[in-house]
Amino acid sequence: MKNILVIGATGQIGSELTLKLREIYGNTHVVCGYIPSAKPRGELRESGPFEICDVTNPEQIATVVLKHHVDTIYNLAALLSVVAEGRPQLAWKIGIDGLWNVLEVAREHECAVFTPSSIGSFGPETPRNNVPQDTIQRPTTIYGVSKVTTELLSDYYYRKYGVDTRSVRFPGLISYVTPPGGGTTDYACDIYYSAVRGEKFTCPIGKGTYMDMMYMPDALRACVELMEADPYRLIHRNAFNIAAMSFDPEGVFNAIKKYKPEFEMDYDVDPLKQANADSWPNSLSDVAAQQEWDWKAEYDLDKMTVDMLAKLREKLIR
Q1: Does residue 222 share a domain with residue 248?
Q2: pTM score, two decimals?
Q3: How many domains does one find in the chain?
Q4: What is the CATH classification number for the domain harbouring 185?
């Protein structure tokens, strides 16, 4: 049985991934690593072990790894795209210096490491549609620069030291569990909240702006399936394109209107979010992930919309 440490376990992805991992591997085998300003609460705190584990503190990481006999680290500590652009030095400190700390601990204690990359690792020179696994990556944001560096540093530790590093490039993630927290693609989550609350939605991303998106259950499954994949089949490791759906604001608006015909939307474009979105591709090809570890998304836009609306009604309307 694996012993897993999730660093950044109280964040947007980590809070759901930690519980998913506990379902699979057992509550006592998955440690919730957090920083004091983001303490675990509710089920996250009550269902299994938790430890203060700041990614910028290598001694702290090593202590937790030794105490809980950790053999696998999911490193999710990072600033989201819009937040990172406002605090670039902190984004680098957490995303890259923090990763270096994790990889060094992993090297010393023989741990596997998952550190997600992002669609933000691409830039304006990247092909716009059906982006291949291997292509030009010249991002124009500190978020993207840090993600490319994450991929390269993780590959370096695998090649030089044999650390079992693996990663996916996440599209925009949509969830009914954890509220958005400063990402360019957050509108695709916010729009569902507005629809269920009966509010008109004002979209910060312009009409016709396509981006790859994924429903959180698929994203969590991708993390687990990649870390369980046969290492002898893996060629790319850091980081695999994964894809599920690509849509613009009108696409998700129309999907919601099928079930809530009274729903309304207008636009007030946020320049920073729009600039980020314009620098990213419209869609990714995930052929490499399909071939190397049998990846396949389960949710398309309509299936996700039905589930999101149902789950948010349960959550918001008491």
Answers
A1: no
A2: 0.93
A3: 2
A4: 3.40.50.720
| Residue 273 lies in domain | 172-213+244-316
Would you call 68 helix, strand, or coil by DSSP? coil
Is 189 found in the same domain as 114? no
Token pair, residue 315, equals: 């959550």
Catalytic residue among 74, 143, 192, 299: 143
- Check the CA dihedral 202-204-206-210 and report its sign: negative
Q: How far apart are CA 13 and CA 59, in angstroms?
A: 24
* Crossing angle between the packed helical segments 14-25 and 216-228, to the nearest 10 degrees: 50
CA distance 85 to 102: 23
Going by C-alpha positions, the residue among 224, 231, 244, 233 that lies closest to residue 288 is: 233
157 given a catalytic annotation:
no
| Pair of tokens at residue 293 | 């570890």
Do residues 90 and 224 share a domain? yes
Do 36 and 107 lie in one domain? The reply is yes
The pLDDT tens digits of the residues spanning 132-152 come to: 999 999 999 999 999 999 999
